[in-house]
Amino acid sequence: MADHQEASVTLPSAPASVTAARRYVAGVLTDWGLAEGSDAADAVRLIVSELATNAVQHTLGQSPDFTVDVLLEREELLSIGVTDSHPSMPRRLPAAVQQDNGRGMVIVRALAAESGGRLTVRPTDGGGKTVWISLPWAPAAPR
Asked: What angle do CA 111, 121, 74 make, to 5 degrees?
């Protein structure tokens, strides 16, 4: 495997793109031989779903698309970035028990912390932001 691999997809800012983003990242993990079906791969799919959902919810009707980037460095650090054009930074909202939303970033932060990873948010030159999650990733054991 190369020392550094990356993949990227730009998707329309539409609810169906959340599933497309999750499938895209799952396909990249499979192509790179990264333990499809492992707990780590499942966590990454959940993280992508949450970040893509936020991108769609905050840009729907305002931006035509969002981008998902996947980076693997030295077979040990997997980073997922979701870029959208909305200027506001993600923040933790108090979620009432009855609410259907407001827990996405709490879930993402918890998954990152549980795996020893980190979550960062960076503004983009175009006035939007990229939400990055970086996770330690052990190479798949040979079968």
From this structure: 65
What span, in angstroms and rounded, lies between the C-alpha atoms of 132 and 142? 29
Sheet with strand 77-84: strands edge to edge:
4-12, 65-73, 77-84, 129-136, 118-123
Integer CA distances (angstroms), 132 to 12, 33, 71, 100, in order: 19, 22, 10, 24
* pLDDT tens-digit series, residues 3-38: 789 999 999 999 999 999 999 999 998 888 876 667
Of 9, 12, 65, 68, the residue nearest 44 (C-alpha): 68
Compute the distance between CA of residue 38 and CA of residue 13 in angstroms, rounded to an integer: 29
Query: Parallel, antiparallel, or unpaired for β 129-136 and 4-12?
Result: unpaired
The rounded Cα 46 to chain-centroid distance in angstroms is: 8
Token pair of 16 as six digits: 């169906």
The residue type at 82: V
pTM of the model: 0.83
